[in-house]
Amino acid sequence: MKTFVSGMVLAALPLLAHHSFSAEYDEKKPVTLKGTVSKFDWSNPHVFFYLDVTDSSGKIVNWALEWESRIELKRAGWSQDSLKVGDTVTVEGSLARDGSKQAEGKSVTLASGKKLSSPNEAQAPKSNAAAKPTPKWPDGQVRLGIGPGELGYWASPSAASLVENTAGNIRMNREGILANIADAGKVAPFQPWAKGLYEYRQRNLLKDDPMASCLPPGGPRQFQVANGVEILEQPERKRMFVMSGGGNRNWRLIYMDGREQPKLEDATSTYFGDAVGKWDGATLVVNTLGFNERFWFSNGGLPHTEALKLTERFSRPDFNTLKYEVTVDDPGAYTRPWTGGWTLRWVPDQEIEEYFCDDYNRDQEHAEGK
Amino acid sequence: MLKANNLALGLAAIVVAALVYTQTGYAQNGAPIPPPNGGGGKGKGGGRGKARPPSRPTPHWPDGRVNLGPLPGEKGVWEGNAGATLATNINGGLDNPAMNLPTNLKISEVPFQPWARAIYDYRQATTTKDDPHVRCKPSGGPRMFHTPYGFEIIDEPELKRLYILGVGGPHTWRVIYMDGREHPKNLEPTFTGHQVGHLEGDSLVIDSVGFNEKFWLTREGIPSTEFLHITERFTRTDYDTLKYEATIDDPGAYTAPWTGGWLIRWQPNEEMYEYVCQDNNRDVKHMYGGPRN
To answer: What's the rounded Cα separation, in Å, for the pair A23 and A14?
Structure first.
């Protein structure tokens, strides 16, 4: 009986917790629903709206449609006024795996013909024709954060997961789940145990992702989080900060004062590690070590060990583009150092709004299955 | 005689601090993470009863603007002043009167509405076991400034912004707009609210509205509602001291605005480090004060 009750509670939880979409919805089961909006819940961690749909027998069935977080939808042109109760709309989505009347929304077409898409479906702006040149500090150094009078942040990574840059095109969904698990060996030069663990996490649809328990996104994952990231430069203190819009709005400190990095064996193991950076021309090079093993350093669940050392390279080829490249040197999990990366896009005129994963992690007892 | 009194006070403060520390310690970090390089808020600075060398004057930037961090080439962090609070309640056992402002009200003088006083008393009677902070929720308003491990204020006048980065709790940040903007209408309630600030002499003044009701104003359980409007004043009275005052204007919980605060000490030569509340929040038992396995 106790087990049964726990099961019920756990089944109800995904609505509260920040979960993996892949675990909930099946991309291979598309659905089109036409109906009337009965409720629009413009809330975090995920926006929902509900649709009264008349089925073939004439019965009205209420469907729940789940979308990304507000900040992501805003980026794709949504607002809290996008839908009203009573609107007749058509939704494209993916059905829930458990067969419930629930779907992940991909796009919604309003009666006016206007179409709003999930940010993952929305097309990136075709060109950066209007892109201004790379902004610089008065001393000529490239600026990675906002400038005076500006508002904006970095988001929308061009790749779903970190993959070795020689791997070619590996098909995967936006959470980094491979379309074909046989591609696992191409992702990175895994040691056998690490490949096994990666495949296990993939087969489990990332259900054990520590970020879903609101633990911080360390390493490259900071630059993959859906809510985006800010870079705060503090030249007068010779420091930089990476301010994460995901997780619990955590910050990471990078020393730019030329200090020596501790030896790996002396470093305290943390989520963000011990980071020192320096400029190499127009590229910021950050060396980080001293990681713990309690986070996944990329979407998709690539494993790492405390031996992990990262060399990250940041450049800003134009105003709207941040190029991120990282070399992973972890003799504990990989057979050799390897490199991958992606670009991030500048989200102009918007601010990373307050978002705390833990705010939605309301029911710890139930989360623990008590 | 004076010396003995000071010693007694100092010892009492240490005991109280230890009690406070233990309570929070069990809840969110049964085994405190040793900060790198021997830093950290606890134990440095010679202890509460011990005299420190006289402070240097308030530092300023070349243009005369108050410097809320270290002078160039130096390091330092503002101490998370556990134990200090907005209104004195010695009997509550969660108080470090040495750091409270002498102008602070006694808890009996706070213009609570009856329900707000009742909820404060309940939180006291239940040894603050429900404090959202110890469940790793973010801390709005004053709560952030008596959270162990401290914080830094990062002033970026060129950007007309100021950031406050906390080490403890969920290891998070607040942004304060210094560009003269007003609060937007129809704010959605959040933990840190919408914050605008300006400098007045050596004081940073932050005006915040748009708070949710999911945090406690102070660690011992002073409540607030969505009507909360906080005016915080951080005055760097000398190099080593930040005087923190908060005016609580919340017609939902109080019959009149009221002010309290404490002194925040500079911890020289220290740097912020990584502390993640959630990291030790894996086991519900610990959040309820159970022993660590």
So the answer is: 10
**Which H or E element spans position A192?**
helix A192-203
Q: Tokens 């013909």 map to which residue?
A: A113
Residue B144, chain A, CB below 8 Å: the answer is no
DSSP state at residue A271: S
SS3 state at A47: coil
Q: In a structure prediction context, what are the per-residue pLDDT tens digits for chain B, which is 293 residues long?
A: 333 444 444 444 443 443 333 333 333 333 333 333 333 333 334 444 556 788 999 999 999 999 999 999 999 999 987 778 899 876 665 556 788 999 999 999 999 999 999 999 999 898 888 888 888 888 899 999 988 889 999 999 999 999 999 998 888 999 999 999 999 998 989 999 999 999 999 999 999 999 999 999 998 899 999 999 999 999 999 999 999 999 999 999 999 999 999 999 999 999 998 888 877 654 444 444 333 32
Q: How many independent structural domains does chain B possess?
A: 1
Which residues in chain A are contacts of B190 at CB distance < 8 A?
353-354
Partners of B286 on chain A (C-beta within 8 Å) are: none
Nearest Cα neighbor of B233 from B257, B198, B265, B267 is B198
Largest Cα–Cα separation, chain A? 72
Inter-chain CB pairs, A–B, below 8 Å: 92
Pick B173's closest partner by Cβ from A237, A249, A267: A249
**Amino acid occupying residue B35:** P
Residue reference for tokens 């609060």: B183
Domain residue spans of chain A: 20-123, 152-358
Tokens in use for A83? 């839908």
- Of the partner residues B172, B214, B284, the one whose CB lies closest to the CB of residue A365: B284
B293 within some domain = no
Strand pairing of A152-155 and A102-110? unpaired
Q: What is the pTM for the complete model shown?
A: 0.81
CB-based contact A354 B192, cutoff 8 Å? yes
In a domain, B193, yes or no: yes
Write out the residue range of the structural domain in which residue B68 sits: 2-48+55-287
> Using CA atoms, how far apart are residues A314 and A304, in angstroms rounded to an integer?
22
Among A202, A171, A227, smallest CA distance to A296 is for: A202
- For chain B, the three-class secondary structure string (H helix, E strand, C coil) is CHHHHHHHHHHHHHHHHHHHHHHHHHHHCCCCCCCHHHCCCCCHHHCCCCCCCCCCCCCECCCCCECCCCCCCCCEEECCCCCCCCEECHHHCCCCCCCECCCCEEHHHCCECHHHHHHHHHHHHCCCCCCHHHHCCCCCHHHHHHCCCCEEEEEEHHHCEEEEEECCCCCEEEEEECCCCCCCCCCCCECCCEEEEEEECCEEEEEEECECCCCCCCCCCCCCCCCCEEEEEEEEEECCEEEEEEEEECCCCECCCEEEEEEEEEEECCCCCCCCHHHHCCCHHHHCCCCCC
Query: Distance (Å) from the C-alpha of residue B163 to the closest C-alpha of chain A?
Result: 9
Cα B207 to Cα A254: distance, rounded to the nearest angstrom: 30
Interface of B with A in 33-72 (CB under 8 A): 33-34, 36, 69-70, 72
Among residues B24, B20, B38, which one has the least CA distance to residue B269?
Answer: B38
Q: Is residue B292 part of a domain?
A: no
CA distance A68 to A20: 11
* Domain range A20-123, its CATH number among 2.30.40.10, 3.40.50.300, 2.40.50.140, 2.60.40.10: 2.40.50.140
Q: Which residue of B has its CA nearest to A291?
A: B274
